[in-house]
Design goal:
Length: 104
Amino acid sequence: MVSAGAPTDQMAIWAIVLAGLGLLGLCCVGVGGLILGPIAFFLGGSSLKRIRASNGAVGGDTLASIGRWGGLAVGILGLLILVFYVIAIANGFNNAITNNTTTP
């Protein structure tokens, strides 16, 4: 017979869900990761504090840790992708201005 363990903290579940959605959101010019990554990071951290303060009454510390560090990674990737797009657009405008030649 398997005994039931401590219930998983809901914030830990949301942290990992938001980190996963942020990973999918990286496709949208990095904005999804930039928004959802920090939220997942802070939810995971808050969940870890709640789990440790519960003295075993609430579980899910692995999920909270994965959500926290996954959110950090997704947030950093989102920022890098957004910076890449901004630089690429700026270079495109710069090239369009400097290579503006008139044809006879």
